[in-house]
Amino acid sequence: MSEKVIQIENLAGISEEEAQRNGISIVGYMLAFTMGECQIPNEIPEKYWEENELDKTYMPRPSKPKGAFKKACMSLKGYREEEGTSNGYRYFSIYDTTRLTDVQYMITRKIIRVSEEDEEQTELEHINLMKLWFNRETKEISYDFEDSRMKAVADDLFEKVFKKNFVIFLTHMTRENIHDAFKRYLKMRNGIPLTIGNGGGWFIPSGKEEEFAKIKAFYNDIANEYRTGLYNIKIRSIPMIDTIDVKEMVEEGVRKKVETEMRNIVETTIDKLQSNDEDIIEKALKLTEKKVNDISGFKRIYEKLLKQRITVNVEIPEGIPQSDRLKAIADAMR
Fold first, then answer.
1. What is the pLDDT of residue 173?
2. How many domains does the chain have?
3. What is the pLDDT at residue 204?
4. Which of 178, 199, 274, 326 has the most CB atoms in a 10 Å sphere around its CB?
5. Region 322-327 average pLDDT
6. Res. 1 pLDDT band, cuts 50 70 90
């Protein structure tokens, strides 16, 4: 079986201005992005979205109290405090976080001794320090220490570290917030993941260039100013010209996405059809029809973009009762 070779020169992006001057059609954009750690005040995205009249569907959303609680708990994972030096050794407390439920976390503490001579580490103690939980109704946060001897340590960690981080996460957006927002934008633009060799990125169809430029500017110019780690916040886009190789690459990406989602729909529906409850079967069929219509609509968008039909291979397994509705659903999948 021969491997299909994609000519790199046909994938190379050109500037939009150059494409327009030469009458070259752009089918879409290849996107590569990094989302570094950051702390962006909650009001910054909202102000930018309002000033630029952008759709708030894909505006970064502030963390709710429960989300800020989770982030503050996880921020204690790997937190390290130096406890002093004695007789050629340095002593450290290292904390870890374990999720018990979606509103309850256990914080553990290890005491580590490090030799100043050869940096050899010895674990002296490892205990459950305290349990933190979030009350869904009152939005209050409580904690309790596991060992009465550790009360002062637990109090200190809660007051000086946890509460400080909780306020930051409640009033600032982090990498998670802006990444989730950009994923919503990709979905809204009918984006698909594409692989080229050992690398890849996302493809979005052409159109809405002015809006996309504003989205890029927010991440590249504004959000990046608030990064707190080594990695930038950066979105790079390469215009993809209308060539056979580009169309084949996009068509393959669409087919993979559609077939994967269709097979998941089939598996879920078949499981529901085994029920003896007519209501469950009826609800399953209605939900399946909606999902199939959505993914079929997605496929039609790309068929229009590429000016060609995209065929997918999804079959209803043998032995499944073939009602008229199920047959119609199967036909819509193809």
1. 97
2. 3
3. 96
4. 178
5. 62
6. very low
Q: What is the 3 state secondary structure string of the chain?
A: CCCCCCCHHHHCCCCHHHHHHCCCCEEEEEEEEEECCECEECHHHHHHHHHCCCCHHHCCCCCCHHHHHHHHHHCCCCCEEEEEEECCEEEEEEEEEEEEECCEEEEEEEEEEEECCCCCEEEEEEEEEEEEEECCCCCCEEEEECCHHHHHHHHHHHHHHHHHHHHHHHHEECHHHHHHHHHHHHHHCCCEEEEECCEEEEEEECCCHHHHHHHHHHHHHHHHHHECCCCCEEEEEEEEECCHHHHHHHHHHHHHHHHHHHHHHHHHHHHHHCCCCHHHHHHHHHHHHHHHHHHHHHHHHHHHHHCCCCCCCCCCCCCCCCCHHHHHHHHHHC
What percentage of the chain exceeds 90 in pLDDT? Answer: 60
Domain final residue pick, 171, 189, 218: 171
Amino acid at 262: M
Last residue of a domain, which of 147, 171, 195? 171
Range with the poorest average pLDDT among 77-91, 98-112, 214-228, 313-327: 313-327
304-305-308 Cα angle (round to 5): 60
Residue 3 domain-assigned (yes or no): no
Stretch 171-200: mean pLDDT: 90
